[in-house]
Write a structure and sequence with these properties.
It holds the Pfam family HD. The chain has helices spanning about 5-20, 25-45, 50-55, 70-80, 85-100, 115-125, 130-140, 160-165, 170-175, 185-210. It is mostly helical. Bound molecules: adenosine-5'-diphosphate and nickel (II) ion. Adenosine-5'-diphosphate binds next to helix 7 and helix 9.
């Protein structure tokens, strides 16, 4: 099949799967990540077709949306073979989406240029104003508070505390979002992450000022 037709088929497939998701994996997240992946792929000289296809499919297998990660990956594999995607490209896409998730930042670094591009694109959508919006949306979906001054915050929680549902949206910044800048793979991605990262820092400063009402005191 023509690459451009295949990309359109992938868009339709993903849109249908993620249309009604409110956990931060909605179609528009995919749209933004795919656009960013193409920008990065051009700057980094990566394979555009593999990057675009992997970006489109990257969240389909997520554990939150499937009975298991394996079941999710099988869904993607089946779709790729039903479309007759060339073996090598299909394998590469499978390899990218099965290795790129965050997993507490402990996953081994991804190995191919295309995987580095798609992972950076996904991470860029997890920081900055976009990342802030998604985090609060996700926390609401999960039933967490926006912030709790009596809970440990401004530091990483222990696994035990996390399991007991004591995380908050603000805490997620320390658990993950503020770490992403230093985990970027590509030079272009690192550069793009800088301004989104400082925007989050400014947001947190303002958040704490307003929380305490310090911004209301005449100086
Ligand atoms: P992705 O791989 O697309 O970044 P994730 O499943 O890791 O997706 O998360 C979806 C969105 O929700 C991201 O913006 C992420 O930062 C945010 N998120 C993930 N876990 C939490 C959490 N425990 N609390 C708040 N936000 C979260
Ligand atoms: Ni994603």
């Amino acid at each position: 099949m023509e690459p451009s037709i295949l990309i359109n088929e992938a868009r339709a497939f993903v849109k249908k799967q993620l249309e009604s998701d409110s956990s931060g994996h909605d179609w528009w997240h995919i749209e933004r990540v795919t656009r960013t992946a193409l920008i990065l792929a051009k700057e980094e000289g990566a394979d555009l077709f593999v990057c675009e296809l992997a970006a489109l499919l990257h969240d389909i297998a997520d554990e939150k949306l499937n009975p298991s990660l394996e079941a999710g990956l099988n869904k993607v594999r089946d779709w790729l073979s039903s479309q007759g995607v060339q073996e090598e490209a299909a394998e590469h896409v499978m390899q990218i989406i099965s290795t790129m998730s965050y997993k507490g930042g402990n996953n081994p670094r991804v190995t191919t240029k295309e995987a580095r591009v798609v992972q950076d694109a996904d991470r860029l959508d997890a920081i900055g104003a976009m990342g802030i919006a998604r985090t609060f949306a996700y926390s609401g979906w999960k039933g967490d508070l926006i912030y709790d001054p009596e809970q440990p915050s401004r530091r990483e929680m222990t696994k035990e505390e996390y399991r007991h549902g004591k995380s908050t949206a603000v805490n997620h910044f320390y658990e993950k979002l503020l770490k992403l800048k230093d985990l970027m793979n590509t030079e272009s991605g690192k550069r793009m992450a800088e301004s989104r990262h400082s925007y989050m820092e400014r947001f947190l400063e303002q958040f704490y000022e307003e929380w305490d009402g310090r911004d209301l005191i005449q100086r």
